[in-house]
Amino acid sequence: MRSHEIDYKIIGEDIQIVEIELDPNETVVAEAGSMLFMEDGIMFETKMGDGSQPEQGFLGKMFQAGSRILMGESLFMTHFTNRGHGKRKVAFAAPYPGTIRAVDLAQINQNTLIVQKDAFLCAALGTSIAIHFNKKFGAGLFGGEGFILQRVQGDGMAFIHSGGVVIERQLNNETLRIDTGCVVGFEPQLSFDIERAGNLKSMVFGGEGMFLATLRGTGKVWIQSLPISKLISRLSVGGGNAGKESGSVLGGLGDLFER
Description:
This protein has 259 residues and is mostly beta strands. It has one domain (7-245): 4-Layer Sandwich (Double-stranded beta-helix). Helices cover 15% and strands 43% of the residues. The protein is built from 5 helices and 17 strands. It has helices at 58-70, 137-142, 200-205, 228-235, 252-256, and strands at 7-11, 17-22, 27-31, 35-38, 42-47, 77-82, 88-93, 98-104, 112-115, 120-124, 128-133, 148-153, 157-163, 166-179, 183-186, 191-196, 211-224. Strand 1 (7-11) and strand 2 (17-22) form a beta hairpin. The protein is globular, with a radius of gyration of 20 Å. Mean pLDDT is 78; it is low at 137-146 and 243-259.
């Protein structure tokens, strides 16, 4: 199924929204609860699945629903369709402060993007949002992303959100090491793994964590400056969870060496 062609505008600087303009009978699919506003003529319907395979049977829809539960997402997705006679707008907001990035899947290798499990915001109807298992044990155990990622596939526009600022890097047969949890998404041909961060001294006192996400190959990767886990950690410094997300294995004791 070819994706619907949609027009869009991203509004804001630090806390962004995406405003999508739909022609009559065009549809955008979004995560439940992400809608900000919609104009008269826009109708929405909650469905089990992304609608990319309309001929899919009940068992197929149940499998897709089950995979969404594994990803920690809502069982259902919301389909917004313009049932009016002219152009109508619907807008979506991310669940936490950050940046929204528009990705044209037709320009991505294999028309596929691998993203962290809470990065998908919305996309043109025809886009497939499915589970993606990380085959590397180390990446699943220490990567911050876990074994389970999302695979976004299609030939239209998809919108992903991230914490803080998001940057795009093009690797040309190169290796890039990134703070675990800061990888928003990457093209499927890149190799994603987790490697030890330097020697024992660096791991204990470096403040950068014991492991780093490592991507190798040729392709694009998107990186976020402030993942939600790190934001929660900083906001709960004085609470019962203080130190649990610290980069040093010494937790609060390690902070003494930084003062």
